[in-house]
Specification:
The complex is a heterodimer of chains A (108) and B (122). Chain A is an all-beta fold and 108 residues long. Chain A is built from no helices and eleven strands. Helices cover 0% and strands 49% of the residues of chain A. The chains are: A mainly beta (108), B mainly beta (122).
């Protein structure tokens, strides 16, 4: 099983600032990585797939990079609606598909 | 667009079997282009992939749950289902159904159902 590790667990950021979230895989997942956003009481929402491709309707301030074992999600200028928990997920090796434990982005 | 909706009991007793159904609308489960997944999230915790099913009934389960898990599909009703047996409090979670985008190398989850909270308690 591939273990996905996200850091930091919590990120405190002021509105308008940049947020950088990390996701590390225990072995290479190539570029088979997705990012999700989850707000309280809601299902996760797909943000990015194939490490860097934005899903339909996702604002351009969300970007992703990386391949192999190291990945980054960047939110260039945080808006109020971006404060949420973010999860990475690998889909290169299965079963099972695995998620990181999440990074909470909170208002500083 | 495709929408998914979970249904099932909110409360189940320990040692019993959980049965959940995911009804798909706006698209056919029989299109053959997707796997159909179950994912769960214990309160305040992260996401765990439970397993998925193809419209033909072929399944892949998370090895950690395989011994207690059965999934099925009903193409005539455009739904798929999950049965999880021998429940304990550790199975308390929000259970989501979701569509995997594709079959090989495109297995991200989109869209998701709204989730169904299942509490295991006597």
């Amino acid at each position: 099983e591939i273990v996905m590790t996200q850091s930091p667990a919590t990120l405190s950021v002021s509105p308008g600032e940049r947020a950088t979230l990390s996701c590390r895989a225990s072995q290479s997942v190539s570029s088979k990585l997705a990012w999700y956003q989850q707000k309280p009481g809601q299902a996760p929402r797909l943000l990015l797939y194939d490490a860097s491709t934005r899903a339909t309707g996702v604002p351009a301030r969300f970007s992703g990079s990386g391949s192999g074992t190291e990945f980054t999600l960047t939110i260039s200028s945080l808006q109020s609606e971006d404060f949420a928990v973010y999860y990475c997920q690998q889909y290169n090796n299965w079963p099972p598909w695995t998620f990181g434990q999440g990074t909470k982005v909170e208002i500083k | 667009q495709v929408q998914l909706r979970e249904s099932g009991p909110g409360l189940v007793k320990p040692s019993q079997t959980l049965s959940l159904t995911c009804t798909v609308s706006g698209g056919s489960i029989s299109s053959g282009d997707h796997y159909w997944s179950w994912i769960r999230q214990p309160p305040g915790k992260g996401l765990e992939w439970i397993g998925h099913i193809y419209y033909t009934g072929v399944t892949t389960y998370n090895p950690s749950l395989r011994s207690r898990l059965t999934m099925s599909v009903d193409t005539s009703k455009n739904l798929f289902s999950l049965n999880l047996s021998s429940l304990t409090a550790a199975d308390t979670a929000v259970y989501y159904c979701a569509r995997e985008r594709g079959l090989f190398g495109t297995n991200w989850f989109d869209p998701w159902g709204q989730g169904s909270l299942v509490i295991v308690s006597s």
